[in-house]
Amino acid sequence: MGPDDPAVLYEVRGPVARLTLNRPARRNALDRPTLDLLRAGLDRAEADRVRVVCLTGAGDRVFCAGADLGDPAGFARGPDPEGPRAFAALLKRLWSYPLPLVARLNGHCLGGGVGLALACDLAVARDDIEVGTPEVRVGLFPMMIAPLILRKASRAKAVEMILTGGRVPAREAEAMGLVTRAVPAAELDAVVERAVAGLVAAAPLALRLGREALREVEAMPVEAAVDVLCDRLVALLATEDAAEGMRAFLERRAPQWRER
């Protein structure tokens, strides 16, 4: 990779945008320019009106190693809050992103990279990679990604991983809930493509409203969550897409989504 190569590649194929961390020599680690480019790529994909965004890393060794500790403008500067705040802004953008997100974990997923994967709706990993949070071994702690880990993974195993700085094989990460699916390397792209195709085939308005509703009720008691989701379903039933989807089903044809 030359000095003029972008740290994040952006590509659109039909209804799908792909964002690729393009710093393999730095283990696809996150420095400040890379964080800014990732956020810009998310903005661009939304403006391009794609249906799904896929996030992956260049090469086949590391999806993302987290923060670039060797970046002279980053953590190496000492207690500068701008780097952590930029990463926090990216995580929040991913968590509230209006389009479905799929992480393609083509290599080890470490530190802040775990946060990127967990902020996506689906994460498909090669079964020969490892997932881990090594921050405590360099005097840090996975502060901002901890809420995502605790929301998605079994708590006992997740806390063990966080506190020891250990790594877990992808199959164990799948059992813990850190990744959606761990598959043989030869099947990675096919499984990712099937997941993306399933999201593209779904009604885009229903996906957007449904994902928003799930985030809204995640921490609610069941009774309150059911009431909120009932209201959301009533609102969804009033949309043109809901009427079109049910009509197309009865008429045995493909629906024509209008996102309204």
Concise structural overview:
The chain has 260 residues and is an alpha/beta fold. Helix content is 45%, strand content 17%.
Q: Overview of this structure, please?
A:
This protein folds into two domains: 8-200, 2-enoyl-CoA Hydratase, Chain A, domain 1 (Alpha-Beta Complex); 203-251, Lyase 2-enoyl-coa Hydratase, Chain  A, domain 2 (Orthogonal Bundle). β1 (8-13) and β2 form a beta hairpin. The strands form two sheets. Strands 1-2-3-5-7-10 form a six-stranded mixed β-sheet, with helices on both faces. The termini are far apart. It is built from ten helices and ten strands. α1 runs parallel beside α2 and α2 runs parallel beside α3 (112-119). It has 260 residues and is of the alpha/beta class. It is globular and about 60 Å long. The chain has helices at residues 32-47, 82-95, 112-119, 146-152, 155-164, 170-176, 188-201, 204-217, 222-237, 240-251, and strands at 8-13, 16-21, 52-57, 62-64, 101-105, 108-110, 122-126, 130-132, 167-169, 181-183.
Topology at a glance:
Layout: E1 8-13, E2 16-21, H1 32-47, E3 52-57, E4 62-64, H2 82-95, E5 101-105, E6 108-110, H3 112-119, E7 122-126, E8 130-132, H4 146-152, H5 155-164, E9 167-169, H6 170-176, E10 181-183, H7 188-201, H8 204-217, H9 222-237, H10 240-251
Parallel strand pairs: 2-3, 3-5, 4-6, 5-7, 6-8, 7-10
Antiparallel strand pairs: 1-2, 8-9
